[in-house]
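Severity: low
Component: inverse-folding endpoint
Summary: output formatting inconsistent between runs
Steps to reproduce: submit the following structure tokens with default settings.
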């Protein structure tokens, strides 16, 4: 029983067979009851007609008992418990003798208009008086509109003739054949349904084994729109995400190695030359080596920030912050670099409330955006830092520039680590490719969101939405 397909087949089969058997038993019992009721109604109708005809002919019920017993017993006679019943020597099992048939009371009783039993049965004796509540359950017999008696039927299955027995047997046989046919159909449908249900699962299992062996790029066909189809879609999405994550990891490893190799190569070259005496350790050369060390330190710090954010361990130190003052601090940090590039940094804010956030981390995020904008804003351009409240009780921060803009194909990827859509962002500018990824991680840690809008040649605007009401 380790096969899901076998379990499904047996489950469908048990359910189908159980339902078929229950239906067969219920229908068989219903048919038996309906047939008995039909026979009883026919006998009752014939009996009523015969009794009424007898009363109309004789004017009374005198002698009715002899008629009911086939003129064998005397009027009002009835077999007693101690009377022996004669039995012939040669009697087949299960067959009644003529004497037994003669003494068997009829399956009905007749009471006259006063409730006195005239024709007895096994329930009522001759001459006994029937209670009124039992008379009310009987069938009244009336002649010329006058009730002359009450027919009391005995609640037991009426005897059947051979034709009726044959009909009941054929009905039961038909039900049995139908049950066998339904069971056969149930087996076929169970096999088909189990195969249909387990096929997507087998495909998912095979694809999962391939992924376990390192082949992450797997795709299973989506055959239905039900839960199995949703499972297949989720698996395909998971496979695509894992493939992309693996490729990104490989690319990130290569980028880190590349970014580490360049300053390490410079440092190694200077140190070897100084050790060999080829180059003298002048202040200018030492300053250049320090710059390369700074690049390494910045790269390590960026990687640590991202790793802490990924692990959910990035500590934020909340404090009430004046947003206008925060933007002014960022402006002051990059004012000298902007003046050297002939770029203007403006601050526009009408937001006067204090908001709780980690001012150092938010300065880092805004600083990365301003640094990124300075790289792509030409001389004479403008970078604008702005803050404003929104209608849904949030704070909106924005960093807009009049630079070259970002191609539309690169917009979905600019927050990815080490993504460089523009080759000019590579060596020589101290850019690690982690700046925007760090910005997104810091904003997310504050419970906020970041978005970007840009067109080539029309500048770029980064928008940050932060909650004002409470900490995340």
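Observed output (run 2 of 3):
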């Amino acid at each position: 029983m380790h096969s899901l397909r076998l379990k499904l087949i047996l489950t469908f089969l048990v359910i189908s067979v159980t339902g078929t058997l229950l239906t067969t038993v219920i229908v068989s019992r219903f048919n038996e009851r309906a047939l008995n009721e039909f026979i009883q109604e026919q006998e009752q109708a014939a009996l009523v007609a015969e009794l009424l005809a007898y009363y109309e002919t004789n004017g009374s019920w005198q002698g009715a008992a002899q008629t009911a017993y086939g003129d064998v017993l005397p009027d009002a006679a009835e077999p007693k418990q101690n009377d022996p019943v004669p039995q012939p020597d040669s009697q087949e099992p299960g067959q009644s003798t003529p004497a037994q048939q003669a003494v068997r009371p009829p399956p009905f009783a007749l009471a006259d208009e006063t409730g006195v039993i005239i024709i007895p049965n096994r329930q009522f004796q001759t001459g006994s008086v029937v209670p009124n509540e039992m008379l009310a359950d009987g069938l009244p017999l009336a002649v010329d509109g006058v009730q002359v008696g009450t027919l009391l039927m005995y609640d037991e299955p009426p005897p059947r003739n051979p034709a009726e027995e044959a009909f009941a047997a054929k009905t039961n046989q038909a039900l049995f054949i139908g049950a066998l046919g339904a069971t056969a159909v149930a087996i076929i449908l169970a096999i088909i349904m189990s195969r249909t249900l387990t096929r997507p699962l087998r495909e998912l299992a095979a694809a999962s084994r391939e992924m376990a062996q390192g082949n992450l790029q797997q795709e299973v066909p989506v055959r239905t729109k039900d839960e199995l189809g949703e499972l297949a879609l989720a698996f395909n999405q998971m496979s695509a995400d894992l493939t992309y994550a693996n490729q990104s990891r490989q690319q990130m490893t290569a980028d880190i190695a590349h970014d580490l190799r360049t300053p390490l190569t410079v440092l190694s070259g200077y140190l070897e030359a100084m050790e060999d005496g080829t180059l003298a350790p002048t202040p200018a050369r030492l300053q250049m080596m320090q710059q390369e060390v700074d690049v390494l330190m910045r790269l390590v710090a960026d990687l640590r920030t991202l790793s802490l954010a990924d692990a959910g361990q990035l500590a934020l130190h909340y404090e009430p912050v004046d947003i206008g003052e925060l933007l002014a601090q960022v402006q002051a940090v990059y004012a000298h670099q902007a003046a050297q590039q002939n770029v203007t940094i403006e601050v526009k804010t009408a937001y006067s409330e204090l908001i709780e956030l980690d001012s150092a981390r938010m300065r880092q995020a805004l600083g990365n955006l301003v640094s990124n904008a300075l790289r792509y804003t030409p001389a004479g351009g403008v970078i604008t830092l702005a803050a404003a409240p929104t209608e849904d009780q949030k704070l909106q921060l924005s960093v807009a520039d009049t630079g070259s803009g970002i191609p539309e194909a690169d917009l979905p990827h600019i927050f990815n680590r080490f993504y460089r859509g523009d080759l000019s962002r590579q060596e020589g500018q101290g850019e690690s490719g982690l700046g925007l990824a760090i910005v997104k991680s810091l904003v997310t840690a504050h419970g906020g969101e970041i978005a970007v809008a840009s067109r080539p040649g029309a500048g770029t605007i980064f928008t940050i939405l932060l909650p004002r009401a409470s900490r995340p």
